[in-house]
Amino acid sequence: MTHPVAVFEMMQRGNAEALAAALADHAQIAEARNEQGASLLRMAIYLRQPTMRDLLLPYFPEPDIFDAASLGDTARMDQLFAQDPSLLAAYSGDGWTPLHLAAAFGGAAAVEWLLDHGADVHACSHNTLANQPLHACVAIGGGPDALRALLNSGADGNATQQGGVTALHLAAANGDEEAVRILLVSGASKTARSDEGKLPAEYARERGHAAVAALLA
After folding, report:
1. Which of 10, 129, 169, 194 is deepest in the core (most CB within 10 A)?
2. Which has the higher per-residue pLDDT, 194 or 2?
3. Residue 22: which of 43, 3, 36, 40 has the closest Cα?
4. Cα R_g (the chain), whole angstroms
5. Between vectors from CA 213 to CA 209 and to CA 215, what angle results, nearest 5°?
């Protein structure tokens, strides 16, 4: 039987064929989790491996709240919420709330569902990033609709995560002009400095995003 560690290495390498062969030989491999408790399905989502995600989906007919939020599966979230409403405030083994995961990966519909059901838009992750769903959305590129949903529900555009970094710093670093514009309209500060003393414009310039740097100048 393929060792679970080897399966995660396959995923890191993006080797979908090897993963498919391992699952065909031993379907129970799909039950493996990494050291922080993330499922193989969620790891595929984290790694932006849609082929692997789709390969794994049949092995997860009843995803947990964290996998469901990452998938944007609001129907499954409905089922889980009906069973246990406290899951909205739960934290994954790697420190994320369902709203963090939906904001980063699940899409606007999942974000709106969670907010409508009472998820905390200000929840801080239980890991070294110590960030809010807004940071997760911007850092991973969750999309403008998810970003607007968070801001419209009271997310603080000037809240900081590890290193004194705001969502605007993250958007600038990514060269995400649309996110930058949305954050600025919401009141995010162009003059906020990270713990390193850097402005959002500096993050953009250092990474070669001249248009965003100019917008933030």
Report:
1. 169
2. 194
3. 3
4. 18
5. 120
CA atoms of 98 and 70, how far apart (whole Å): 8
Q: Which residue is associated with the tokens 């947990």?
A: 64
Exposure string (b/e) for 1-13, b if CB count within 10 Å is 16 or more?
Answer: ebebeebbebbee
DSSP annotation string for 121-171: TTPPPSSTT---HHHHHHHHT--HHHHHHHHHTT--TT-EEGGGEEHHHHH
pLDDT tens, residue by residue, 38-63: 999 999 999 999 999 999 999 999 99
pLDDT digits (tens, 9 = 90+) for 178-194: 999 999 999 999 999 99
In this structure, how many other beta carbons lie within 10 angstroms of the beta carbon of residue 112? 19
Q: Cα dist. 155→146, 163, 192 in Å? A: 11, 19, 17
